[in-house]
Design a protein that fits this description.
Shape: globular
Helix content: 25-40%
Distance between the termini: 28 Å
Order of helices and strands: EHHEEEHHEHEEE
Number of helices: 5
């Protein structure tokens, strides 16, 4: 597993880099050597945050956790990632390497039966990004799908955790 460790608006201590690499080794049983992992440390709002993103076979696993210490934030983030993987075990088994889930079969929180997908049809009209943000806020949603008036491509605006907005644009 290739691990890249970085920091935002702070100096990365070698002990943090070693801690992250040491803790992420346990995910090799799921992904093997082909996975790429990005770990980013940051401090904001008097908390220490760690963001972990694992790229493997076209699937992205991501988690961001904040805590009083980086050690606690890493532990919580890794637990969350493992929970994501175990919860979606049956769907992921086809993509992850064979035998990845044989180790701890007792702890599996597998989803029972089938799940229902609610389909919602929406009219997508051309509008500006500002108009889409306004519409999203009026509806009280966390994201809004629209067609960009200039490029005529489908786009999504969303509200970020820090209160700002994000824009997803088709390539």
């Amino acid at each position: 597993m290739k691990i890249t460790v970085s920091a935002k608006q702070m100096t990365l201590r070698p002990s943090l880099r070693d801690l992250a690499e040491k803790k992420l080794i346990r995910f090799e049983r799921f992904f093997g050597d082909d996975a790429e992992t990005a770990v980013c440390f940051s401090c904001r709002h008097n908390l220490q945050y760690v963001e972990i993103t694992i790229y493997y076979g076209g699937t992205i696993f991501r988690c961001e956790q904040g805590a009083d210490t980086f050690q606690t934030a890493i532990d919580e983030a890794l637990e969350s990632l493992e929970r994501q993987i175990r919860k979606n075990k049956t769907r992921l088994e086809k993509r992850l390497r064979s035998g990845a889930f044989e180790v701890e079969a007792d702890d599996v929180e597998e989803e029972e039966g089938e799940f229902c997908i609610r389909t919602k049809y929406i009219p997508v009209k051309p509008m500006s990004v500002e108009e889409a943000i306004l519409q999203m806020n009026l509806l009280g949603h966390q994201f809004f799908v629209f067609r960009d008036a200039e490029a005529e491509t489908p786009c999504v605006v969303y509200r970020r955790k820090d209160g700002d907005y994000g824009l997803i644009v088709e390539e």
